[in-house]
């Protein structure tokens, strides 16, 4: 037998909590600061020269003049079926939306199922049927895939991975680093809906109002925004970590400050009430059918009109601006006239949401 490799954790350039914890914790997969630390201080150094330092939710690849967007995502939502959706349509819409956020027209997805031994086949069939229906609705094909089964007790029913490709038009240049001072910040509708919908059907939780997930493909909405001719700098679907995580990531990437007007952020009563019961901030709750856009200030009203004309953008609102102050930070003006810093979440308020 060969010698077992010894990994020197002391050599990692790593802040807390990675250096202080030899084991993975749930927060490392939450899309917040702990996820960033895991990527920046473990994965990227370990990948070495093979890694692209700009790794994000999607990459745009120039292949001999053809610009292709590529993305991959894994879905471990619990429970796998929830009001308004399931792990099947989530697996399609999540990857389709990551591609759309760089301005791509998604074309094809791969799908890989990891199934725990003993899972009823009817549950697998429901997830697969939901994937097929979601793919047709999103205008993409499921072109290749894989299936693995793990021992009973080694998984949690069904996990799904999807990877996708899409085509990016030559004139489209959308990315987190393009946000700039003077940009308007828009959101396409009510936030926090998906996370609350999933939490509403977990054991022991009941809310006074029914909230359904907003999972949906955003491709057509983005296409309409691009066709408007507006100068769209940045798009992001605020999934894990919610709106707060997405805005902080963009502020850091573009080195701009983000100033929000809290009263303008659309939060439905059901989400606000549920978050009040759970002690959560809706800004940090996951979404699956919403986007946040950074648009040149002079184009903001035109883009808002286009968004509101689309069913998935009917509740769109301008919620803030990019400013030269507090670069890399997000600050919100409250209803009482004060301000608060909207930090990057450390981990995840609601685990296993997507």
Automatic annotation (TrEMBL):
Domain PurM-like N-terminal residue range list: 56-168
Residue span, PurM-like C-terminal domain: 180-329
Origin: domain of life: Bacteria
Xref: InterPro entries: HypE, PurM-like_C_dom, PurM-like_C_sf, PurM-like_N, PurM-like_N_sf
CDD domains given in the database record: HypE
GO BP term, pick one: protein maturation
Pfam families noted in UniProt: AIRS, AIRS_C
Stored SUPFAM superfamilies: PurM C-terminal domain-like, PurM N-terminal domain-like
PANTHER family given in the database record: CARBAMOYL DEHYDRATASE HYPE (PTHR30303:SF0), HYDROGENASE ISOENZYMES FORMATION PROTEIN HYPE (PTHR30303)
Entry similarity comment: Belongs to the HypE family.
Protein's name according to its UniProt entry: NiFe-hydrogenase maturation protein HypE
Naturally occurring in which organism (per UniProt): Gordonia rhizosphera NBRC 16068
